[in-house]
Every structure is written in structure tokens, then in C-alpha cells.
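Q: Can someone sanity-check these two? First one:
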Amino acid sequence: MSVTFFADAVSEEVNMANANAARVLGVLGYGELAGDAEAEDFLGRVLVALALTPEDAGRPATAEGRFVDCGRREGYVQERLEELRELAEDARARRLTVYWG
């Protein structure tokens, strides 16, 4: 399963696996894997997270029984925050809401 961030049907989307999206949403101060925010608020959270969040050390892949977690590469959170910054700036310029789910 995954979480997609978007502003409208024609905007660029940012898609992440649930576990990675939960990590990114956590640094943005959101607790749910589905929601929405005004672009200005979302952009502000992204900019604060980019300024204050330590470099993502990543997470190794693990397997437990039939469950496989592919992990997260080093710097992943910052890469995704940059993509979300671009999405939020575009949404703000076009007065759109940012959605995820």
C-alpha cells in the first residue's frame, strides 16, 4: 500500500510506501495517513522540517516470516521533503489544497 500527495488532477504527485509516508508525515506533525491542508500551512511545515530534521540515516531492510520491509535509503526523508516543497509551492501559487491518502 502507499500514500500519494497531490493538489489536483494535473499536479505532480508524490507517492510513498505507507511506512515511509508515516515517517515523513510524522516530521511534518501529522499523525494520519490520509488528510489535507491548506498549501500555505503545508509548505510552512515542510520548510520547518527541512530546516530542523536531522539527516535521515535510513533504515535497513528486514524480513520477519512472510513480512518484508524494504527499508529506507539514507537521506530519503530530506529528498521527499524537497519534492513536497515543490508540490506545496505549486499548490500555493494556484490556491489549491494539498491532499494525501
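And here is the second, same format, sequence then C-alpha cells:
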Amino acid sequence: MINILIIDDHPIVLEGSKNLFNNIDDMRANTENDPTNIPEIVRTTPYDVYLIDINIPGTSGIDVGATIRSLQPNAKIILYTGDQIEDYYSLIVEKKIHGLLSKTVTKEHILRTIRVTMYGEIVLPTSFVDYVQQLGQPQISKQPLLLNTREKKILQFVVQGYTNSAIALEIEVTPRTVERNLSRIYHLLNVTTRTEAALMAKELKLID
């Protein structure tokens, strides 16, 4: 039996995700919407696989996964996202996670990914090959960060001290979208706070 914990801050999403495993004989799923409970859960009732939303307010699925693996080194971490999964391929190369899923994939794809992960293998799209090939190519610039236009704007506002809500109003998106973009920015800069991101942006001259 594969025991799975689904971690997401949206109760409706959690319920829908859990229902995917109904009547699946070799899997049992539970849910958790508060990331602060994760350390205690891992210590008392560890799971085989942790299916984690990348974009969790107040933290990120990346950080939650790191916390889990620090307490349970053999845990299998699969992240899922509504963003482009290509943005997170580096986490697989760095062996920080075991799999990536788009929120648009089918139930069959999710089940196959979990089963394959338990065997120590990875399900990846063909675009991952292109990513790996790019890693082996000479870099024209020493700066590997690839921030898109929206991320650069958000980083500029972070440096100026804007809140997520204020940034959302400025660029006409939802606060949730700002949170998702910040999670990727933090990962690219290898930081965990807004202050660190602002300092790194100035040091690397990422903003005008």
C-alpha cells in the first residue's frame, strides 16, 4: 500500500485531489492544508509520498519538501503546479524532488507518476531532454537567472517595499499570481525572504 499525503492550502482542491485515489487498491491518501503541521506529521505518521502544491502562502512547496526530507530522508516528494513545470526542472537535476506534475494532467498520469516514483524512477516530458542539453552548452553570461518580464516587475516592486496586494494592483493580476511568481523568484535567487530577494536583486543588478 502506498500512503500519500496531499498538501495544499485550498480545501476544495484537497478534496478533489483526494477523490482521485478513491477505489485505487494500492494507494491511500490523506490531506493537510496547514504546512506548519507537517513536521509533527512526518515525525509521528510518515507517508511514502508527499504530493505538494508548489504555491503555498507564507512558504512554498519547495521549502515544505525540504523540511520533509530533512526529517524523513527516504520520503518521495512530488510537486504539482498550475505554472509551467519547466520552471522547476532544476529541482529534479539537483535531486531536491522526485517528480513534477501539472495540475492539468490526467488521473492516470498522476497515478503512474506516483507508482514510478516508488520504484525510484521519474516520469518526465520530452522537454526535459532539451533542458538537460542546455545545461551542457557553454554559457555566454555567467548569470544563469532567467526572469521573465512579469517577474522583473514584481522584483522591482519588492525592492520598493510593496506588499503582494499592492503589487497585484499595479500589474493587474491576483495576489495569488504574485505569490506564485515570488516562489519562483525566491528559488532562482536561492533566498527565502523578501528582504533577501531585494538585496540579491541589487547585488546581481537584476533591476534598473
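A (reply): Looked at the second one. Residues 175-189 form the longest helix (15 residues). The mean pLDDT is 86.
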